[in-house]
Amino acid sequence: PEQLLQQPPKYEVDFADVKGQHHVKRALEVAAAGGHNVVMIGPPGSGKTMLARRVPTILPPMTVDEAIEITKLYSVAGLLPPNTGLLTTRPFRSPHHTSSNAALVGGGSVPRPGEVSLAHNGVLFLDELPEFRREVLEVLRQPLEDGIVTIARVQASIAYPARFMLIAAMNPCPCGYFGDPQHGCTCSPTQIRKYQQRVSGPLLDRIDIHIEVPRLTPDDLLRTQPGEPSEAIRERVVRARQIQQKRFEGTNVRCNAQMTTRMLRQFCPLSDDVKTMLRQVSQQMGISARAFDRIVKLARTIADLAGEEHIGLTHVAEAIQYRSLDRRIWL
After folding, report:
1. Which neighbouring-strand residues pair with 159?
2. pTM, rounded to two decimals
3. Domains of the chain, first to last
4. Neighbour count for residue 327 (Cβ, 10 Å)
């Protein structure tokens, strides 16, 4: 297994293919470095799906234990490709918005792993997030918190691992053009509110980064120079993950997004200036305690990417920007 994983993983897509959207690439780099969940909001054709499909290319190479875990799950589900002894690339699962509860979390008379388990140690991409049924989205709350999903049947109860990185994409309204300066929105305020409320507050709280993906400008579309390749981004992500491995050595935590409240106090000491900024932002945005903790985790990841030992004002300011949709778009 070690020999199979020594070679860098091969992907058919690369971040160099993506034109513009530098702030979104930065947000996805932060997400990959700390294992954070992301929701991208933007009009049709802005590149949300293209960006999401390239997230596995900047994640750290899998360890032997991770590769064995994934291979076992795919074998149980009957999805292991022929003549494949070990899966060496991180999974990317993209279930359709018509998927049922059983398809997402697993089920059947003999319980089989669902999409959340098949995305273990990889990426679960939910395109058109509000189009998923409300009850289907709500079942994501347990695996997002615990990293495990339990399927109970009369004969037995089976627990499958489900520690994945959630990438979601959605339009801001039914027509898709709310807030787009170049295309008028045809939806009424009531339609926009109902559409956005299909994603519950508790689920949104569990998504660390909310990022707007605007329409590309003509200059971006006409630019022929390739963007930064995935390999360069992955190197920075790997360095940040190595810092986290040393930080959490001896625990079951692998990255900043998995920190408990006690770990936050231990590994994320805040200066008086940072506390003042967080206090003001908390009052202005009316964020929940869970969202507050996620801002601190994001700031810790941003500091790790910068190679900084302590969380500074610039790190917190960037982390707050990734929660701005709490007050800017959601009605």
Report:
1. 150
2. 0.91
3. 2-222 (3.40.50.300), 230-328 (no CATH)
4. 12
